[in-house]
Q: What sequence folds into this?
């Protein structure tokens, strides 16, 4: 038994040190001071424990009590719940093969899943070892076990076109150069190390006459790519920035939802993608892939049950939750959450910028949508059948299309090659959607106005358009403004999906912050409060507008006005004064 | 001032105006009367082009307004219209209702418009309602405000389409009083109305509309006291009419008798009179005419009833030889018939027999 353990431990260490493939994760393990102690402890564990099968547990977790020590153990749980990063096609398939009974939920970012696993809400999730190791630094209750995956190459992905191939080839020469010079290793050490001051990335501007390339990533995967101080940073970002600077090219980074990264490359929106992408068979077939610049094994994140290791802010189950609060004090804990959510790394800038983007997109979409809706409404009211039919078709199609899908179609298909800014695509998309709803609202409002109103205006000598704007529309507005207001608030909330097309709105800001703080409660609740505040404010503005249309209010104003202006002389002349 | 020539209006299902011809002079006050659904509103609406005429021509001061490219908004500015349902602008106060078109279309200053509006509100007795909303006014007040709104545009002619039909009877008077005042000032007006006494008092001429045309026209005296045509008379006297064509070959005795009963019941004809009417029908029409008429001839029977004065009149028309039904009638029925009727008149001219019985 003892022999077998020794043998396995050696295998792991040796296996990770395979000469052809530099495996930095383990190199780092060997270099970092913590690893030394882990190894020591690991040996101790091997001496004492023999009952539990720990072959899949990495040495640094051997003295901790893990919720599961092997995939086989997980398989025994009938109600296993796993997290899965949306867009992880290969890992998804493998996970289902390994754990056929598991129920899998999909998440947009690793930090969210790390938080849930550390708190026992999820049983585990699979991701690259460095990603989980990094998450474990922030979540002391997070560990991982080996899941039997082959180590995989992490690569950059290029479109299967001539342009993609030539850029790939050029990149490869630099990767090999960096590998030879040991630069790859030192970048790796930097990003998995503790010196925060050095964790910055400068994306190069193009030199004279050289092109600028667009790189897609999904900055929710620390340490490979994430947001710090409002900027995209991380191991892969740093590497690419250095290589492109040396090549003399400009490099523009686009932070999009993970599932949009490859889509963006395939549709020609971006020149290549770097997002902790490994060489899965699907990629190999459909894209050009660079040489590997990292080798990573996919592992299974699991919870560490040891209570003595609970450190704030990560909490471990309900009991320790309250214990932590008593210890720390509710105020102090909120304060520390506040500091980490807003103050550290100037994260409030992300939030204020997000609020601005959300408000900006909402208002512009509403304006565009209202104008569009009005035109469609006029088409609906047209006596020409075909015009009406076109309007109806438009409305039906837009009402039947989920906004996310519409937005993605516009961004990745319709406007993919125009280089038009994502914010404008969002305004067009939400405006089109809003217009469809608004037009029907307006039409019912207009049809609710008695026909006699228009006829009376015409009989006085108004032209038809003027009568419509002066007499019919204000009355229709009184009918539809309350509904309009509700629809507008829905629009504000609906804008929270713009993260899909690489826009950093309020929701995305909260995602980014959570991916750094590994904390869900505080950022989510504050985000909800901010949305509420925005909606409240915008409702107030609309209500004020609505009041201006209310004739009895205007009458009171008029009354005051006429008292001030006419009462005095008229009262004297005995004439009737409006009372 | 306005010449209407061969005006025709066809709707998908009905043709309310077949061939309307009229001349309207400055200062004319014309009341248009007639049964409902005969196109009186359509006629007014064609004049200010709220409806497009199907055919025909309307000339105002010699200029065609039905020609393509006619400036309709400016023509409408000369022509006010008062609607049955008032159509005050619901989102504006009464004062604003009267000011808005003056400012927008006649380019009067706010002050001028305000003063004109207040003056008009005084004349229609609504000065204290200036800042009310339409919904806060009674029907009569709304209509007076609507008249003020029309007058504010200084129209040369005002078209009234049943201005009092939507009002409670108690409010009709106040609106008619306002219109009477306008008549005194010599404003040219076309008024569709069912208020016969009012029409008679203020009108210079009356148009009786029926059958898609101006069926009869004349001074109030001519139309109300001496209508020349049956339909006009029936309308003026508010006669209830029963009409039936009887063919000897297909005559359904029980059917006709049932319909006569129903007619008498519906119009609250007295028991005695309905008995007499049925007896007269039986003896005259069935026994004395139908039985003696050649099978090829048909009988056209019209029965007119008015609650007031005239009572019940049966008119029977048929062709063939001269045939006085009273000739050769047995003594007993003849006696009874004399008891049931006031007069029986027989005429024969142009191959046509007419018999008129006034039932007692
Ligand atoms: N817009 C319209 N479309 C179709 N039929 C109409 C329309 N307006 C009026 N009519 C029909 O034309 C006829 C005359 O209507 P109208 O001029 O309102 O009669 P009046 O005012 O004499 O009662 C009626 O049978 C009415 O149903
Ligand atoms: Mg009518």
A:
């Amino acid at each position: 038994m003892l022999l077998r353990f020794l043998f396995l431990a050696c295998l792991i260490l040796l296996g990770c040190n395979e000469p052809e493939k530099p495996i930095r994760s383990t190199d780092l393990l060997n270099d970092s001071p913590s690893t030394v102690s882990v190894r020591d402890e690991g040996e101790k564990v091997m001496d004492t424990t023999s009952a539990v099968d720990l072959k899949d547990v990495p040495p640094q977790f051997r003295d901790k009590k893990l919720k599961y020590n092997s995939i086989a153990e997980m398989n025994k749980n009938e109600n296993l719940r796993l997290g899965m990063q949306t867009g992880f096609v290969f890992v998804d398939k493998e996970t289902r093969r390994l754990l056929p009974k598991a129920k899998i939920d999909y998440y947009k970012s690793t930090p969210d899943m790390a938080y849930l696993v550390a708190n026992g809400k999820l049983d585990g999730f699979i991701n690259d070892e460095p990603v989980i190791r990094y998450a474990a630094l922030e979540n002391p209750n997070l560990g991982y076990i080996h899941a039997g995956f082959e180590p995989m190459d992490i690569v950059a992905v290029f479109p299967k076109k001539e342009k993609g191939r030539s850029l790939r080839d050029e990149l490869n020469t630099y990767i090999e150069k960096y590998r030879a010079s040991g630069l790859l290793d030192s970048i790796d050490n930097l990003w998995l190390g503790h010196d925060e001051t050095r964790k910055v990335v400068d994306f190069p501007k193009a030199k004279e006459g050289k092109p600028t390339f667009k790189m897609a990533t999904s900055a929710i995967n620390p340490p490979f790519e994430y947001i710090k101080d409002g900027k995209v940073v991380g191991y892969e970002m740093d590497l690419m920035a250095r290589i492109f600077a040396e090549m003399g090219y400009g490099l523009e980074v686009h932070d999009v939802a993970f599932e949009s990264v490859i889509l963006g490359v395939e549709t020609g929106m971006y020149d290549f993608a770097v997002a902790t992408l490994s060489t899965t068979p699907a990629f190999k077939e459909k894209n050009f892939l660079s040489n590997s610049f990292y080798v990573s094994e996919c592992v299974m994140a699991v919870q560490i049950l040891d209570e003595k290791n609970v450190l704030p802010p990560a909490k471990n189950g309900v009991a320790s939750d309250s214990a932590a609060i008593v210890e720390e004090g509710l105020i102090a804990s909120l304060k520390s959450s506040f500091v980490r959510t807003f103050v550290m790394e100037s994260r409030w800038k992300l939030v204020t910028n997000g609020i601005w983007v959300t408000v900006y997109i909402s208002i512009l979409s509403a304006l565009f949508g209202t104008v569009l809706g009005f035109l469609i409404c006029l088409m609906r009211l047209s006596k020409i059948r075909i015009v009406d039919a076109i309007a109806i078709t438009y409305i039906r199609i837009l009402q039947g299309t989920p906004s996310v899908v519409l937005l993605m179609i516009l961004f990745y298909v319709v406007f993919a090659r125009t280089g038009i800014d994502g914010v404008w695509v969002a305004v067009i998309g939400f405006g089109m959607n809003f217009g469809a709803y608004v037009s029907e609202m307006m039409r019912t409002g207009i049809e609710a106005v008695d026909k006699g109103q228009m006829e009376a205006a015409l009989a006085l000598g108004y032209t038809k358009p003027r009568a419509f704007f002066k007499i019919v529309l204000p009355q229709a507005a009184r009918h539809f403004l309350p509904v309009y207001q509700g629809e507008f608030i829905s629009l504000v909330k609906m804008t929270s999906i713009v993260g899909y097309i690489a826009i950093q709105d309020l929701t995305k800001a909260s995602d980014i912050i959570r991916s750094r703080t590994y904390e869900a409660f505080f950022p989510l609740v504050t985000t909800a409060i901010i949305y509420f505040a925005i909606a409240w404010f915008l409702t107030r503005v609309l209500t004020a507008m609505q009041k201006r249309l209310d004739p009895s209010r205007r009458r009171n104003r008029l009354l005051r006005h006429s008292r001030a202006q006419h009462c005095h002389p008229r009262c004297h002349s005995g004439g009737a004064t409006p009372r | 001032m306005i010449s209407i020539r061969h005006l025709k209006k066809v709707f998908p299902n009905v043709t309310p105006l077949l061939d309307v011809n009229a001349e309207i002079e400055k200062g004319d006050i014309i009341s248009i009367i007639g049964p409902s659904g005969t196109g009186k509103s359509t006629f007014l609406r064609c004049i200010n082009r709220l409806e497009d005429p199907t055919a025909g021509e309307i000339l105002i001061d010699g200029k065609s307004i039905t020609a393509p490219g006619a400036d309709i908004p400016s023509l409408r500015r000369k022509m006010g219209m008062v609607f049955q349902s008032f159509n005050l602008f619901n989102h504006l106060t009464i004062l604003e209702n009267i000011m808005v078109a003056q400012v927008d279309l006649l380019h009067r200053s706010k002050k001028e418009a305000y003063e004109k509006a207040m003056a008009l509100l005084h004349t229609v007795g609504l000065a204290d309602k200036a800042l009310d909303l339409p919904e806060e006014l009674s029907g009569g007040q709304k209509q007076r405000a609507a008249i003020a709104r029309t007058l504010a545009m200084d129209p040369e002619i005002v078209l009234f389409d049943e201005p009092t039909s939507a009002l409670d009877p108690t409010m009709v008077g106040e609106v008619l009083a306002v219109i009477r005042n306008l008549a005194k000032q010599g404003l040219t007006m076309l008024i569709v109305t069912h208020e016969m006494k009012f029409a008679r008092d203020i009108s210079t001429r009356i148009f009786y509309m029926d059958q898609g045309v101006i069926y009869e026209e004349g001074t109030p005296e001519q139309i109300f006291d001496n209508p020349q045509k049956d339909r006009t008379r029936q309308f003026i006297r508010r006669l209830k009419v029963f009409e039936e064509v009887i063919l000897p070959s297909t005559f359904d005795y029980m059917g006709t008798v049932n319909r006569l009963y129903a007619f008498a019941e519906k119009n609250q004809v007295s028991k005695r009179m309905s008995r007499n009417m049925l007896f007269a029908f039986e003896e005259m029409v069935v026994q004395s005419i139908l039985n003696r008429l050649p099978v090829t001839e048909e009988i056209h029977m019209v029965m007119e009833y008015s609650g007031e004065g005239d009572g019940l009149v049966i008119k029977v028309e048929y062709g063939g030889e001269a045939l006085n039904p009273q000739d050769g009638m047995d003594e007993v029925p003849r006696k009874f018939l004399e008891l049931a009727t006031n007069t029986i008149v027989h005429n024969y001219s142009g191959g046509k027999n007419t018999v008129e019985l006034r039932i007692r």
In short: Residues 1-50, 308-326, 567-579 of chain A have pLDDT under 50 and may be disordered.
